[in-house]
Amino acid sequence: MSDELSGFTIGVTADRRRDELASLLERRGARIVLAPALRIVPIADDTELRAATRACLDTPPDIVMANTGIGMRGWLEAAEGWGLGEPLRAVLAGAYMVARGPKARGAIRAAGLQDQWSPDSESCEEVVEHLKEYGVAGKTIAMQLHGDRQPECSDALEAAGARVIEVPVYRWGPPTDPAPLHRLVDLIAGRLVDAVTFTSAPAVSALLRAAGPSADSVLDAMRHDVLAACVGPVTAAPLRRHNVPVIAPTRARLGAMVRTLVDELPQRALNLKIAGHVLTLRGHAAVIDGELKPLAPAPMAVLRALAATPGRVLSRAALLRTLPRGADEHAVEMAVARLRAGLGTPGVVQTVVKRGYRLPVD
Fold this sequence. Notes:
about 350 residues; alpha/beta; 4-stranded parallel sheet; elongated
């Protein structure tokens, strides 16, 4: 198959770049569940931003910490609107500028400014350590915030003797429509998606908040069955604190995250030799001798149960437990019939009279 992710279902929690990420994944054959966990909300009352800008003009910062590209662009655009664009650029040009990542660096350079340093990890902790080594005692630091306040960074710098001016440009808000996120929570808990992608650490927290009482079930699913893919180590940190194994590229880029998924997901697929055929189980599809066979949830659930113990006979009662509540043994027979029709290959699902069904392994 040329589509490396065919047969897999992947949740996308990004908002601003969700279409770009979904397109990258769909081009590789994946089925996508779009469920923005957050949205970026410009601060409606810009009093705080204007006050922070005035503070920077009155006391030019020695150091500027740029956290995000969208935040730096928003700050400079707002200053232009107040007629303070040129004075602000002049103040920033005289400061030691630190860009937390490539997007922030791009925004700085697009404004005709120059950054002096950027961390490999894109983490605030590494920036703080660098600045403490650089020397911050008695200096003023302008910190462009990444959505919400970052007290752990501000407090550490202030403890080292700096004066910190926090520059709030936007905040994280809940998604406009929360229904897709709640649906994704249910799909993760039910192991009905193969992977979930995250492009920001706050999106992880938002997903777990949306899960509410189901948060433990969501975390358990991501520890064992649902692959968590993060754009970089900063995004991955909250999941790692919950002991969730995470895949993340070395460079924090959407394309690199997609390539990591392409490398990892197919390796997690179950491969069996059944009745002279090669059978591979992917998220919502089986692959028989290289041909993709999409399956509905009930037939797929039956196939997964049979494949978990290939060669062993499973009774109708055992298979019934894999189907939604309220199903009966007739539903098992229907699911098996649909499974056989979907596979289109005789002999893969074998009936053992008066006992049940099995996959006859070679």
